[in-house]
Backbone:
């Protein structure tokens, strides 16, 4: 059995197969990789939900449920890559380029496809539910900051290995959601709502250790802030981010199933 931190698959033929998404032009990712190399960025990877869903489709014959948004991570400056794309591509192809300087992230619409482009980074949390302190990091460090093991996989472009340092493929096979570390929920409690969204959409369950973490963290909820106190004093996870996750749940997911998951986990409170 492979140990944590090892690559579980390095077959470029399989990886190229994974890069075919319905509704995504075949040359889109190739264009991004070529332009990133031309501006001195040599490590570009597809990460997150698109990798998860491609594996579910390729390995487990799950249907693609929605047209995937593409999350890409670069070792280097996402803003620099966005500037290169604006120089190199015709305006008809690149119809949106919105830079968020605080975290060096960019929202793109390229060939009609929504792309979130981010610089690889590391995160630490000053306290439960607070915004993270962010600094540049490696692709591996970027995977370490993610929510569930099934979302902590990366496919390096153009035909590099599939990186799976937290055994996300094994969790896909079990159809379970597992957190990356023991204080994942305390760092960002909105991961509980996100977990309910994924569980409802994908038909997954929480692994036993993840459920224990959810319930033990909720038992301390909501830390130093109480309902009725000034909203601006609440940690961001109990304010802005929680609202965003709930809006996503009700707008885009089978919300009755998601609420049922939250009830089963003891999280509706």
Residues:
């Amino acid at each position: 059995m492979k140990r944590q931190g090892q690559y579980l698959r390095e077959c470029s033929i399989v990886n190229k197969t994974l890069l075919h998404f319905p509704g995504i032009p075949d040359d889109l990712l190739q264009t991004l990789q070529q332009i990133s190399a031309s501006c001195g960025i040599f490590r570009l990877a597809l990460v997150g939900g698109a990798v998860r869903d491609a594996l579910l489709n390729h390995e487990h014959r799950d249907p693609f449920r929605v047209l995937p948004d593409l999350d890409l991570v670069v070792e280097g400056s996402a803003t620099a890559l966005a500037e290169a794309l604006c120089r190199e591509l015709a305006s008809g192809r690149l119809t949106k380029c919105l830079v968020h300087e605080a975290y060096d992230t960019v929202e793109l619409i390229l060939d009609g496809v929504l792309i979130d482009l981010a610089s690889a980074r590391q995160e630490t949390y000053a306290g439960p539910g607070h915004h993270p302190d962010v600094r540049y990091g490696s692709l591996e460090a970027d995977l370490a900051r993610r929510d569930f093991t099934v979302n902590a996989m990366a496919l390096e472009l153009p035909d590099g290995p599939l990186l799976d340092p937290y055994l996300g493929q094994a969790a896909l096979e079990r159809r379970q959601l597992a957190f990356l570390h023991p204080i994942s929920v305390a760092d960002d409690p909105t991961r509980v709502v996100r977990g309910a969204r994924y569980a409802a959409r994908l038909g997954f369950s929480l692994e036993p250790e993840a459920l224990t973490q959810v319930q033990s963290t909720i038992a301390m909820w909501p830390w130093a802030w109480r309902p009725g106190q000034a909203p601006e004093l609440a940690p961001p996870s109990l304010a802005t981010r929680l609202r965003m996750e709930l809006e996503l749940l009700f707008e885009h997911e089978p919300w009755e199933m998601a609420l049922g998951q939250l009830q089963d986990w003891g999280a509706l409170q």
About this structure: The first helix runs from residue 12 to 18. The radius of gyration is 19 Å. The longest strand covers residues 94-100. Confidence is low (pLDDT under 50) at residues 1-14.
